[in-house]
Amino acid sequence: MKANKSSGIEFLFGITALLIFQLLGEVSVRILDLPVPGPVAGLLYLLILLVIMGKLKLPAPESLEQSSLALLNHLSLLFVPAGVGVMVHFHRLEEEWLPITVALFLGVLITMGTTALSMKFLMRYFDKKTKDST
Amino acid sequence: MENTDLQTLWVYLSTSPLTGLTITLVAYLIAYTLHRKTGTHPLTNTVLVSVVLLILMLEITDTEYATYFEGAQFIHFLLGPVTVALAIPLFQQFAQVKRLFIPIILSMVTGIVVGTISVLFIAKLLGADLATQISLSARSVTAPVAMGIAEKIGGIPSLTAVLAVLTGIIGAVIGTQYLNLLNIKDNSVKGIAIGNSSHGIGTARAFTLNTTMGAFAGLSMALAALLNALLLPWLVKAFLIVSG
């Protein structure tokens, strides 16, 4: 891992920063009764901080970038424990296999298709509009 | 006696969190290697292969999921910080995002609204019970967020996590071929569509194909986490009123 090139303290710093933002997210969601999950609120706070830092011409901390990308590189691994949880729900899946299977497959096809086709259309529309106005 | 020694060893191994953690990593590394060896074929999806290997192993050794999870939770826990970490690719693509902001947001909201309403009605028409229907509504969001949403809207968090992982696998396996079929060529459009429909697992797949597609998928899964958290409570409420 690139992040461990030096003493590894950068990696530790990055992870700690992520945990602090998650903690801020979890706490604020509970106190303010916000409709979003804690980690999503944490994501927003971190993004806002990065944007403000960017406006002040401060570089984003490299350690944070590196440890975030290291985690994101093995994103698949993190889904495995939840995926194995399928064995707890075998009974429900057996009873409702038809609606669940159809809903999951069509859900992917409909969501993916609608998003892609509407974005293709909208990009063409907005490109035209910006060209017309210049 | 040797037999009892073996038995105490077995008791230790089958209850220690060390085992659950270790077999998860070993299964993932096997799956990862297989995925590489098959030229990243979508059917050898790492999550799919790891999950199948682990379930076989737990069934053979007659181990309960709860026991396994005592160890696996250390990996599962990282889903929280990794959600926060999505701020990084979002920020890196900020200039691009700003330029395409309106098309991205509008198309994602369209995808979420049409997708969720369709899924809810399909599940209801085919006879799924209410808890399953509601759990299905959060299927296209990254697992920790999906669980958080499910908890708030009356779904079953652990079932929702499973449905989210299955959705991610489906999206990763059929996604790019399906988008080619729809004649979508732009990698940024592909990325947005993949992230919005099959979150992190689709994003991981997109990254192996093309960096731009991967970055946009990462951006899209982060935005999807936010948009779904805001939209789903209303969509489900509206669905419950309409469907009675």
Structural class given helices, strands, pairing of chain A?
A: mainly alpha
H-E order of chain A: HHHHHH
Main sheet specs of chain A? none
Discrete helix count of chain A: 6
Multimer state = heterodimer
Number of domains of chain A: 2
Order of helices and strands of chain B: HHHHHHHHHHHH
Biggest sheet statistics of chain B? none
* Overall domain count of chain B: 2
| Averaged pLDDT of chain B | 91
Helix content of chain B: over 70%
Cα gyration radius of chain A (Å) = 21 Å
Report the sheet-strand fraction of chain A. Answer: under 5%
Terminal residue distance of chain B? 66 Å
Number of strands of chain B: 0
Task: Give a structural overview.
Chain A has 134 residues and is an all-alpha fold. Chain A folds into two domains: 1-73, no CATH class; 83-134. Chain A has six helices and no strands. Chain A is extended. Chain A starts with 8 loop residues before the first helix and ends with a helix. With 244 residues, chain B is mainly alpha-helical. Chain B folds into two domains: 2-77, no CATH class; 83-243, no CATH class. The mean pLDDT of chain B is 91.
Pick out its properties.
heterodimer; A: 134 residues; mainly alpha; 2 domains; 6 helices; B: 244 residues; 12 helices; 0% strand; globular
Brief rundown of the structure:
The complex is a heterodimer of chains A (about 130) and B (about 240). By secondary structure, chain A is mainly alpha-helical.
